[in-house]
Amino acid sequence: MAASVGPTVLLGARLPSSVMATLELAFNVVVADGPVSAEVIRRQAPNAQALMSMVTDTIDTSVLDAGGSLRIVANVGVGYNNVDVSAARARGISVTNTPDVLTDTTADFAWALTLALTRRISEGERLLRRGAWKGWAMDFLLGHDLRGRQMGIVGFGRIGQAVATRAESFGMVVVHAAGPSHPVGGDGAMPLDRLLATSDVVSLHVPLTADTRHLIDRRALARMKRTAYLVNTSRGPVVDEEALAWALRSRLLAGAALDVYEHEPAVYPDLMELENVLLAPHLGSGTVETRTAMAELAARNVAAVLSGQPPVTPVP
Questions:
Q1: Closest CA to 224 of 257, 202, 250
Q2: What are the residues whose beta carbons fall under 8 Å from the beta carbon of 293, sequence distance 6 or more?
Q3: Is pTM beyond 0.90 here?
Q4: Per-position b or e across 188-223, b if 16+ CB within 10 A of its CB
Q5: ∠ CA(230), CA(231), CA(237), 5° rounding?
Q6: Cα separations (Å) of 266 from 15, 24, 221, 230, 241?
Q7: 122: number of CA atoms within 13 Å, CB side?
Q8: What is the 8-class DSSP label of residue 70?
Q9: Mean pLDDT for the chain overall
Q10: CATH code for the structural domain at 8-101+288-306
Q11: Partners of 151 in the beta sheet?
Q12: C-alpha angle with apex 125: 121 to 129, nearest 5 degrees?
């Protein structure tokens, strides 16, 4: 049962029971009865001082204005493109995220997708389940080895670097797209166009911004090797899904694995019909341990700000 005293904290969804218990000791906890919106705040928690939002909640000016008492928006996720950060700051509201705690789990999943895609595991499972497997054959569902191939990482932050470490342990040559912190020529950094043209696997780990929306479009896909694979565990709109379907149908690349989508939970229909696409339902950080750690860190941010301390992990 939620506490009847203390500041009110609105949750975008129920959190792990251990985190709920900790929050309820100090705060009046209210769980939103739907995606967080201005109407939900006005109906359920008009005086909330903290909002713990999920990546599926759009925290725009209407939500921030409805939450006139808000002091913090603690996003339970490392990405925060769903929060209007500048509008929150203009209203004196802290915005936090949950970096670091999901790095290894997400990198593991990106690598799992890479292995499953290049070894055609999802194709094989679908074939077996529909009763079409006729037994072992020398040339049946052949995939590709990764040792000695090039992994191109687009977005060389914490997760991108963790994926690089895993790729190197499998004998891959790792390069990454150059950026402000990684100039061309240093530590395997190269221009994006060259990375796309030379890599055997391209793994995306950029945040969603105006510059990265549809970063992978028809032009980018046409630059890739016809034998290359694309893996996206960053944000859906980084990839133009219509362009990706076109490229796969046209055999401009060998395959793709997606964990995120432009219009989640919807998936571009043409992708659903293609065998050389592995589709996962946004599972990148989806382990019990990591989701609990994310919720715990978000709760620590709430406790810090509501006690007059600086947030633990403010967004940059």
A1: 202
A2: 98, 101, 102
A3: yes
A4: bbbebeebbebbbbbbbbbbbeeebbbbbebebbeb
A5: 95
A6: 24, 35, 22, 20, 11
A7: 19
A8: -
A9: 96
A10: 3.40.50.720
A11: 174, 201
A12: 175
Same fold, 8-101+288-306 and 103-279: yes
Q: Rounded CA gap, 219 and 110, in Å?
A: 24
Question: Which percentage of the chain shows pLDDT scores above 70?
Answer: 98
Q: What is the pLDDT of residues 76-114, one digit of tens each?
A: 999 999 999 999 999 999 999 999 999 999 999 999 999
Q: What is the Cα 177 distance to its own chain's centre?
A: 18
Does 271 have pLDDT greater than 80?
yes
Predicted confidence band at 5 (pLDDT cuts at 50, 70, 90)?
A: low
Smallest CA-to-CA distance from 69 within 18, 28, 15, 114 is with 28
Domain ranges of the chain: 8-101+288-306, 103-279
Q: Which residue has the tokens 């780990």?
A: 205
d(CA 39, CA 80): 21
Do residues 140 and 163 make contact, with C-beta atoms less than 8 angstroms apart? no
Q: For residue 253, what are the CA distances in angstroms to 8, 17, 167, 261, 306?
A: 51, 44, 20, 19, 50
Pick 103-279's CATH classification: 3.40.50.2000, 3.40.50.720, 3.40.190.80, 3.20.20.10. 3.40.50.720
Asked whether the beta carbons of 7 and 50 are under 8 A apart, the reply is: yes
Q: Which of 230, 236, 267 is CA-nearest to residue 248?
A: 230
pLDDT tens, position by position, 212-235: 999 999 999 999 999 999 999 999
Catalytic residues: 235, 264, 282
